[in-house]
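dumping these here so i dont lose them again. two proteins, back to back, each one seq then structure tokens. dont judge the mess
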Amino acid sequence: MANPLRGILLKNEPLAKYTSWRVGGPAQQMYIPEDKADLIDFIAGLPEGEPLYWIGLGSNLLISDNGISGTVIYTRSRLKEMQLIDSGRVYVEAGVPCAHVARFCSDLNLTGAEFLAGIPGTMGGALKMNAGAFGGETWRIVDRVEMINAQGHVIERDKQAFEISYRSVKGQSNEWFLSAQLVLSEGNSEISQQQIKTLLEKRNASQPTNKPTCGSVFKNPPGDYAARLIEACGLKGYQIGDAVVSEKHANFIVNQGNATAADIDALINHIQNQVLAQFGISLETEVCRIGKKT
């Protein structure tokens, strides 16, 4: 007999409040698991072929105004376990914010995870896209991960099972990250904490961190920076609806209050068209666009 579910199941749940851009229509259904074991039970009980989507901190995500057909799993503050397994090896579940991981490792006198303080998402999102900041990249410190498939089976996979590149991670289809084991070096807590403080000061000085954004919208093309190209096109401050290119950092789009996903989508397309026309460079989005088109 299946275990009784302990989480919260919501129907037609508006998703704007769960995303850092504050846009997005309703999820057909959304599950907020009690913990990892509860999530495994829930996924095992889903109908075969059920579309599955994941939200952590809701950064790096553009959800359609028309919402999402299928099931959304909300991991923030749910898949939240972190522990030191043995010397230099840390277990982190997918719902832990990256900034918390940075501080946890620092407190353990471990170095190598400081850059995670500059990533405005959860560990699950960082694993999915090989998130990076200030020269660091997530998968450089990952040794192995725990995945869950559409049947609710949990599989451990080595780093070698994935094709990892800049802001891209390719593995088995219909598998999602549950946790990771990070391998770090011995360090000094005071030095790490000072590094984190310096990184956050740099981020706050250069990015619109106190406004509704998704983080960086575009990947940097080889040998260049998306922000430089966008600024060179004169697009800082360019606005569609209530979505505007940040004056502080051109690779950020800010929701000024009442932007829709359609506004943001149109602005993304306009930026891509302008950069292609002026520089012959096709900017790829870093942000994930999901949801119903019509």
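---- next one ----
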Amino acid sequence: MAVTPQRIAIYRALLEANDHPNPEAIYTRVRSTMPSLSLATIYKTLDALAGLGLVSELPATGNSRRYDANIDLHHHLVCTRCDRVTDYYDPALDRITLPSRPAGFRARRVSVHFHGLCANCANTRAPRRSSRPFRKERHNGQELEGAVRRARS
């Protein structure tokens, strides 16, 4: 990937962010110093950075793609009311393994996302913004909670 001032500015904005921004938020931050930058450039650059492993796209975090430049092994707390995403570190979660190997699948990394209410939203009666309900993922009849219990023991 060619290094351009636009790509550097986008990557820097993501490195400086602690809120796991969506492309539109990055566009707003970078556009103040690069008014000719397009939203399409933001999307293409984020896809390229993700492809290189420099950033990660967060799955299932509200209504918009969110990105994280923190590529250390960590997990996320996702507020279903305000869509805030917070990094969460827990070595026990890092050790989760699949109970079986479905169709030869080899997991390379574990990423756990807890969906619930952040402390601020839990203490207020603000309307819920996220439209994605929480649901337990199942694999071969075993719930994630069982895998977490096994990893912690």
